[in-house]
Amino acid sequence: MAAYTVLIALVAVERLAELLIARRNAAWSLARGGVEYGRGHYPPMVALHTGLLVGCLLEVRWAERPFLPGLGWPMLVLALAAQGLRWWCIGVLGPRWNTRVIVVPGLPLVAGGPYRWLRHPNYLAVAVEGFALPLVHTAWVTALGFTVLNSLLLATRLRCEEAALTLCRAAA
């Protein structure tokens, strides 16, 4: 449990780093005429991601979930791969990456890096991490709950993001 707690703490620190980068990038985008879309779904998204980390720890402790090496190690590899994909996305998008939907009119869509193959690779990273991270220590209720709630939230987020990008392309 101690190693898993450290893992979750490291992911929490990573999330805080993301928020700092997102804040800086939001200022960059807004200074260039960026427009934010979908503010209403952002607080539930923050709550869901916070709940994932809290749920991982609480379920393992309260339900006395064991570490099963045959499940835990492959899930750790998946969770780390998801982090790698997320940071690849952040690097490729540069100052355009954000946790919010902010679109700067006139900028072309990014088509490099993982965006060559997937339209929304960061959301794949979120989905994989959302089931893999809890399953590192057999927190299957958290994995299932996050996956279901994230799929609902992600449907809203994708509609919002696609609409924002369509509006900006039409205005260009």
Automatic annotation (TrEMBL):
Gene3D superfamilies: 1.20.120.1630. The chain crosses the membrane at residues 67-88, 123-149. Pfam families: ICMT. Coiled coil: none annotated. GO terms for cellular component: membrane. InterPro entries: ICMT_MeTrfase. GO terms for molecular function: protein C-terminal S-isoprenylcysteine carboxyl O-methyltransferase activity. It is found in: Membrane. Keywords: Membrane, Transmembrane, Transmembrane helix. It is a multi-pass membrane protein. The keyword Membrane applies. This is Membrane protein.
